[in-house]
Amino acid sequence: MVITVNGADVSLVSDGETTLLTALRDELGLVGTRFGCGQGLCGACFVDVEGTVMPSCQTPLWQVEGRAVTTVEGLSRDGEAHPVQQAILDRQAAQCGFCISGIVVRAAALLRDEPDADADRVAEALDRNLCRCGSQRRIVEAVLAARESV
């Protein structure tokens, strides 16, 4: 099975029923995408599949065969962090960091699609991303700051 991950075509040996999360982490070594709840509810495993953010823990490989997948690792370009990644670092918006990769993927997709999103829209878009540390306000502020660089 062939999929495009972060701009590169990769051949996977996993069968089509294997979750995308398992293939990313175990077969490709891309561990930025995290296993959280395993039910697609917490957002820790979010990836972008051709413009749609989806939970990789609930996405079988057959569903992304021949499609382009972007993980948190694929957001940076030429060694430069994506503006959302940089804003979160600059503002120390992440606490434990477990949820942040899914948040970054979702926020980057939001700013790609809605570059003028306001605080309410950012909060709404990140509603499915569970942050147990209580860093949501700082994360929203960081995403708003990233708008200027996207």
Short account of what is shown:
The chain has about 150 residues and is an alpha+beta fold.
Describe what this molecule looks like in 3D.
- With 150 residues, the protein is α+β, with helices and mostly antiparallel strands.
- It has two domains: 2-73, Ubiquitin-like (UB roll); 83-149, [2Fe-2S]-binding domain (DNA polymerase, domain 1, Orthogonal Bundle), CATH 1.10.150.
- It is built from six helices and five strands.
- It has a five-stranded mixed sheet with strand order 2-1-5-3-4, covered by helices on one side.
- A hairpin with a 2-residue loop joins strand 1 and strand 2.
- The longest helix is centred in the C-terminal third of the chain and has 14 residues, at 100-113.
- It starts with a strand and ends with a helix.
- The mean pLDDT is 96.
